[in-house]
Amino acid sequence: MAEKSAAQSSTSELDQLAATFAKNPGAIAGEYGQALLAAGRAKEAAQKLGDLHAKQALSGAARVALAQAYLDTFRLDEAAALVRGEPRLMEKNASALRILGEVALEQERPSEATDFLQRARALNPNDRRTNEALAVLGVGEAGEEPPPPSTVALMGTFKKAGATLAALLVVVAIYAWRVRV
């Protein structure tokens, strides 16, 4: 029953944000975009924030929300371009750096991905997505050695296959490498 109440509350908050966004989109674009993403509505966030971006400049928070929506809908180049288009985001925004790291990871550029993700972790060491992406790369705490190139190549092969089982095998391979089974 508490779950139903929390879901209704979340939907109610999202409805309120949507109403405010309709009246004054620039004022809460970032907050609304993040709420849509949290509700699992990345496609809608990309469409609404993308339409707004075509009409006016976005705040840093709205740019990050739109970049995340693009990343979550596999529009990788657009996600990276949004973040790179605002240099201040690349200096001090952990989410923006994580997005660039995830884009680089998806595009099979592990060295660049590691750099961005480690910078993101330095700003926000508790971010789950950053730590998960670094784990996929086989990077633990600062100073640990990177995974062997064969692991990175294996990740690319499985990613192209697009199978959940392949992702599981990558995790097993990384685990085996880390514990040196």
Molecular structure report:
There is one protein chain. With about 180 residues, the protein is mainly α. It is built from eleven helices and no strands. α2 packs parallel to α4, α3 crosses α4 (about 60-70) and α7 runs antiparallel to α8. It is elongated and about 55 Å long. The model has no long low-confidence stretch (mean pLDDT about 85).
The proportion of residues forming helix, as a percent range, comes to over 70%
Rounded average pLDDT: 84
Shape estimate: elongated
Percentage of residues in DSSP E strands = under 5%
Counting DSSP E segments of at least 2 residues, the number of strands comes to 0
What is the H-and-E element order? HHHHHHHHHHH
Let me know the largest β-sheet: none
Give the structural class: mainly alpha
Distance N to C terminus: 46 Å
Question: Key features?
Answer:
single chain; 181 residues; 11 helices
Quick overview of this protein structure:
The chain is mainly alpha-helical. Helices cover 79% and strands 0% of the residues.
What is the topological layout?
Blueprint: H1 2-23, H2 25-38, H3 42-55, H4 60-72, H5 76-84, H6 87-92, H7 94-106, H8 110-123, H9 128-136, H10 149-161, H11 164-179
Helix pairs in contact: 1-2, 2-3, 2-4, 3-4, 4-5, 4-7, 5-7, 7-8, 8-9, 10-11
